[in-house]
Amino acid sequence: DAGVIQSPRHEVTEMGQEVTLRCKPISGHNSLFWYRQTMMRGLELLIYFNNNVPIDDSGMPEDRFSAKMPNASFSTLKIQPSEPRDSAVYFCALKATGGNTEAFFGQGTRLTVV
Amino acid sequence: DQQVKQNSPSLSVQEGRISILNCDYTNSMFDYFLWYKKYPAEGPTFLISISSIKDKNEDGRFTVFLNKSAKHLSLHIVPSQPGDSAVYFCAARKGGSEKLVFGKGTKLTVNP
Predict the structure, then answer these.
(1) Range 70-89 of A in CB contact (< 8 A) with B
(2) What is the pLDDT of residue A98?
């Protein structure tokens, strides 16, 4: 969806390296979600923000994962150090809190850790 | 502990026939249910939803049925079209929460 820009689209990195995934949401959507999709676990919520404040980070797998939303137009998900089991597609999604529209997703970042 | 389960990883149907995708949930606190469709190399897109106060919601060729006592919902697509071929995710959330819990998805293939 053109309203959610994720970068990069693909990332290949070596085990132990730091990885930063980026999400640039359009305005008017005050909830931002980071999801991860794997074959084993499907789509799982990592963390979500409401008005730039982290609300629920219970899905963040380990301390190696961190997410920030410094302002309404930018969010990052960082993995440091990365491991092969982090290989997945990471999606950013937006929603207007309490609105009549449902969350819509970006195209995702496919991460491969070798 | 999977709270939303889609037990069929794949489904294949003929064009023009009905597709029925199933979903079961375990958490009785869920009160809103959604279906998302996902094409390869794209993010999931919202398809249809249903509140727990209803047992059916229809939108064109797509109908979602909810059986609260069985904790089961299903998505019916009729007639099925080749363009419906995608992975379908069932999702649920609790009242007052924006957090969606997804199933693992069912890959639907509609053959011409």
Answers:
(1) none
(2) 63
* Digit-coded pLDDT (tens) for A38-78: 988 889 999 999 999 999 999 998 899 999 999 888 999 99
Q: Chain A residues with CB inside 8 Å of B100's CB? A: 33, 45, 103
Tell me which residue of A112, A63, A110 sits closest to A90, measured CA to CA: A110
**Tens of pLDDT, residues B34-51:** 999 999 999 999 999 999
Yes or no: say if B102 and B35 are a contact pair by the CB < 8 Å rule.
no
Contact criterion met (CB below 8 Å) for A33 and A50: no
Residue of A37, A89, A103, A31 lying closest to B34 (CA atoms): A103
| Rg, C-alpha atoms of chain B | 13
Locate all alpha helices (DSSP H) within A1-114, ordered by sequence.
none
Minimal Cβ distance to B102: which of A43, A97, A107:
A43
